[in-house]
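Customer escalation, tier 2.

The customer says the design service returned an amino acid string that "doesn't look like it belongs to this structure." They asked us to rerun it and document both sides in this ticket. The original structure tokens are below, unchanged.
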């Protein structure tokens, strides 16, 4: 989910920063329609959403879930869980919500 959201928001930001859109905003500013240009950036929340997606994706991007899902014996499950919990140490470097992290650990 977070990978897809980050890609989508990055694409939207790239389009927002394109020459066509910037020209449109310049025309609106020239026509003294400031509230439309300022309101667009503040109301969409694109920057904050992109920051959140990038921040959460630090934790979720390389989560080693596949070995846990394909484990056939107890030793493979043990090894996969150790890998997942070792990966969860990255949570210190993110602003991932504690309640969601607890739910993730409980789901494991």
């Amino acid at each position: 989910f977070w990978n897809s959201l980050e890609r989508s928001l990055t694409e939207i930001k790239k389009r927002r920063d394109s020459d066509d859109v910037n020209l449109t905003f310049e025309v609106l500013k020239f026509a003294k329609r400031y509230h439309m240009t300022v309101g667009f950036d503040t109301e969409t929340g694109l920057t904050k959403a992109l920051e959140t997606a990038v921040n959460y994706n630090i934790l979720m991007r390389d989560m080693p879930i596949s070995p846990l899902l394909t484990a056939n014996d107890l030793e493979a499950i043990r090894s996969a869980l150790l890998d997942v919990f070792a990966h969860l140490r990255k949570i210190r470097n993110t602003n991932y919500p504690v309640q969601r992290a607890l739910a993730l650990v409980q789901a494991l």
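Tier 2 assessment: The sequence is consistent with the input. The chain has a mean pLDDT of 85. The radius of gyration is 20 Å. Sent an explanation to the customer and offered a walkthrough call.
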